[in-house]
Design a protein that fits this description.
The complex is a heterodimer of chains A (718) and B (76). Chain A is built from 28 helices and 11 strands. Chain A is an alpha/beta fold and 718 residues long. A 5-stranded antiparallel beta sheet of chain B has the order 4-3-2-1-5. Chain B is an alpha+beta fold and 76 residues long. In chain B, 17% of the residues lie in helices and 36% in strands. Classes of the chains: A alpha/beta (718), B alpha+beta (76). Chains A and B meet through helix 3, helix 11, helix 12, helix 15 and strand 9 of A and helix 1, strand 2, strand 3 and strand 4 of B.
Chain lengths: 718, 76
């Protein structure tokens, strides 16, 4: 459910495969399923707050894990990436498949969407081929009931040969029964007879032959029939063989008897006139047909996806005339609420925190500590923290849940549908719209999210351009500057409307840059044609308002405070030291901003602003606080508790509307924060692409700011 | 019968059955994975404002395909 403290920052760098039992009798349960089936809801409902990583709804991209206690045992739940298949055609499918094969799970829960069961059955049947202890969890039963869908669970269970449990995870219904079955399966009181999909004769003959050889030759815990089919398919077998080598320490390709058997099995196919291509088709189609058969038999439904209310909403959100305008209106709406809503808490928090600062000062005076101790702790560390919390926190705490609500509703795939045409023209992947949207939350999470893009070329484009959408940490900077310089203090309706439009304009600029740079990359260093992709438009779901609000507020608040302490506090210290330690007759701060000044001036900035962006490398949230600190250390104003006074401070230091626009442009377009850089390094595995991802936005930012400033100056607008 | 009719040729609201796929490799597999095998009933639900991509109803799910890919799925 949205970003959490754990899914952003360095934690997302975690390894896929580290599942640790804390005790010998802990059980490991893998949780799989198609994207958008409420898998994360099941995961959250079972693990509560006992999670190691959070996840992004509908697209768990790193394995999250958590624990659930049931009848005295600890179950470690591992949330696998949502996939439609386990054929390893994408990174996610490979992660899911490898975990099922080698992750050592005691049981597997496959979560299905009751309203779209046939689509889900493909993964269920593929999973029962790999793992013997599978439980099918049919989620969203409440939605299915609303749509008039009835499922014969006993019949389904009989045909699949594994337990099938109806669940409404959002209401917490059915989860106990689910765990009871999991327990039974692990403890042996429930046995399964997983459904095997059978193919026609020559195929079965070849598969059976190879399977029997594998039975006698192999001593590894991998389903022989499944492995036989994969070896004959050839397609994914090379990666599979290397994984088997890596995880099970067995080099299958060295076994001559097996190699011979593969050739023999291939001959059986060839003699019956079945090409490898036909074999592959038949294996995939066989499962699809089996899924169809099973669902036809066990689902009673008058429901049709075509007459659903969702189609009407789709027409509004994606049609020719309304698609793009509605998208812009929604964006505006979110910003408007953010700007309006953050005004009041911001003022109150600022008052409170700066009142506390006075008390702290009194306290230090009473203690009789030397002046520099007070300076370091109160004027350095405390003050920068106070700024982060009062200016940065409220917009973040409001924007984030709003955005998560839209996401929970299922709107983002529609954005991808609307924007795909543009991305195709840029020879990029339509799913880049999704990763771009994730960037609004956190660019590092957006970069990780790029795993959903299968083509390496298109993934790199998405990674490099992700930074062009401002993350949650940069929004408040933009909002603060807009409020100060373009609309007074954003209190009246019109003022707020203007703020909203300016902010939307900046975001649109970011999106345009994403297109332009994607296109540029496609024509230069990442040449290529757009690869194919499929995009599911999932059913709309009523978001869980309460949970989203509480969770993202709670998580976000803790997250920002945590980051503020770890990043802003030392930054505040550095700034204070720089402002108060002098070399010659000038402070270090004056020296460094002096050095940066001539260059910064070309961009319409000043040395302090550029220095703030540089020191803000660990976290964009601290850029504005650093600027304020730096100005205040040399200025005369000591008390600041509103944006109005802040504006006076800035104009006293030479800010004009040009400075404001340049700062916003530079905020939108500059190097990614340190966490994002580390994530890019980790995701691309390449220093070169990391360097390019840093260089491109930096250079573009410099160019854009320079052109803007020069044009304004030439035309004498300032 | 028009043998060259593909998913791209479907108008909004029109239905057809898949006859065969001419795409290769990973995309062929992916199309099959979403249920586009011989005999599958597909309905064209909605086109994007520029005409590409198009959303299709396939086995109870709504899935958008780009024209280049939809072109490779022959229907009758």
């Amino acid at each position: 459910m949205g970003l959490t403290a754990k899914s952003t920052g360095a934690n997302i760098l975690g390894n896929h495969f580290e599942v640790k039992r804390t005790k010998d009798n802990d059980f490991i349960i893998a949780l799989g399923g198609n994207p958008n089936v409420g898998k994360s809801t099941v995961f959250n409902a079972l693990t509560g707050l006992n999670q190691h990583t959070g996840n992004w709804p509908g697209k768990t991209v790193a394995n999250a894990q958590g624990t659930h206690q049931y009848k005295g045992d600890d179950y470690i739940l591992v949330d696998l990436p949502g996939t439609y298949s386990l054929m390893a055609h994408s990174t996610e499918e490979e992660i899911a498949r490898d975990f099922l094969l080698f992750g050592g799970g005691d049981a597997v829960i496959i979560v299905c969407d009751a309203t779209c069961l046939e689509r889900n059955m493909n993964l269920v049947l593929q999973t029962t081929e790999i793992h013997s202890k599978v439980i099918v969890c049919i989620n969203l039963m409440d939605e299915a009931k609303k749509k008039g869908i009835e499922i014969d669970f006993i019949g389904l269970e009989k045909q699949l040969g594994v337990p099938v449990i109806p669940v409404s995870a959002r209401a917490g219904k059915g989860l106990d029964l689910l765990m009871e079955k999991v327990r039974g399966l692990i403890k042996g009181s429930i046995t399964t007879e997983p459904k095997t999909v059978h193919y026609f004769t020559p195929l079965e003959e070849a598969i059976g032959f190879l399977e029997s050889v594998l039975h006698t030759e192999l001593d590894i815990p991998v389903n022989r029939r499944w492995l036989a089919i994969r070896l004959l398919e050839q397609e994914s077998s090379s990666s599979l063989l290397s994984e088997i080598h890596e995880y099970l320490n067995y080099n299958l390709s060295k076994n001559e008897l097996i190699a011979e058997a593969i050739t023999d099995a291939e001959n059986i196919l060839e003699m019956s006139g079945v090409s490898i291509e036909q074999f592959r088709d038949e294996v995939t189609a066989g499962i699809i047909r089996e899924a169809e058969k099973i669902c036809k038999k066990n689902i009673i439904s008058v429901y049709s996806v075509l007459t659903d209310r969702d189609r009407k909403i789709d027409r509004l959100l994606t049609s020719k005339i309304t698609g793009i305008p509605v998208m812009l209106i929604l964006l505006c709406g979110i910003f408007w609420l953010t700007i309006t809503g953050s005004n009041y808490p911001s003022a109150i928090i600022a008052k409170g925190l700066f009142w506390a600062q006075e008390q702290l000062t009194h306290f230090f005076v009473w203690l009789g500590t030397p002046e520099w101790v007070h300076g370091v702790i109160v004027l350095g560390i405390y003050r920068v923290l106070a700024w982060v919390v009062s200016v940065m926190l409220p917009p973040m705490a409001i924007f984030f849940p709003l955005f998560t609500l839209l996401e929970d509703y299922g709107y983002l795939p529609r954005v991808a549908f609307n924007l795909d045409h543009q991305f195709r023209k840029c020879k990029a992947c339509g799913k880049q719209a999704l990763t771009m949207c994730m960037g609004f939350g956190c660019n590092a999470a957006g970069v990780v999210g790029c795993r959903i893009i299968d083509s390496p070329r298109e993934r790199l484009i998405a990674i490099i351009t992700n930074n062009f959408v401002p993350c949650n940490g940069r929004f408040p900077t933009l909002i603060a500057i807009i409020s100060m310089f373009f609309v007074g203090t954003a209190t009246g309706f019109i003022d707020r409307a203007i703020s909203t439009i300016v902010l939307t304009g900046i975001i649109v600029l970011g999106v345009m840059l994403t297109f332009i740079i994607s296109r540029f990359l496609s024509q230069t260093i990442l040449k290529g044609e757009p690869s194919s992709f499929t995009l599911e438009l999932p059913p709309y779901r009523t978001p869980q308002f309460g949970k989203v609000l509480v969770r993202s507020l709670f998580d976000r608040t803790l997250f920002v405070l945590g980051r503020a302490v770890t990043v802003a506090a030392p930054a505040g210290l550095i700034i204070w030291v720089m402002a108060n330690v002098s070399i010659g007759n000038k402070s270090i701060l004056a020296h460094s901003s002096g050095i940066l000044n001539p260059f910064a001036n070309l961009l319409g900035l000043d040395g302090v602003i550029l220095l703030a962006f540089i020191l803000g490398f660990p976290a964009n949230e601290i850029v504005v606080p650093i600027m304020i600190m730096a100005y205040m250390s040399s200025g005369t104003i000591v008390e600041l508790d509103s944006l109005k006074e802040l504006k006076i401070l800035l104009t006293d230091n030479g800010w004009t509307w040009v400075t404001a626009v340049s700062t916003m442009l530079f905020c939108l377009i500059h190097w990614p924060c340190s966490t994002t850089c580390l994530t890019i390094k980790k995701e691309t595995g390449s220093q070169k692409w990391t360097a390019i991802s840093i260089a491109i936005p930096t250079i573009i930012g410099i160019i854009v700011c320079f052109i803007f400033t020069t044009v304004v100056r030439v035309f004498g607008l300032v | 019968m028009d043998k060259k009719k593909s998913l791209v040729n479907l108008r909004e609201g029109e239905c057809a059955r898949v006859t065969y796929l001419i795409s290769n490799g990973a995309m062929r597999r992916r199309l099959q994975d979403i249920g586009l095998v011989e005999g599958t009933l597909v309905q064209c639900v909605q086109k994007n404002f520029s005409g590409d991509p198009t959303a299709y109803a396939i086995r109870g799910a709504i899935i958008a395909l780009r024209s280049e890919d939809a072109r490779d799925v022959y229907v009758s």
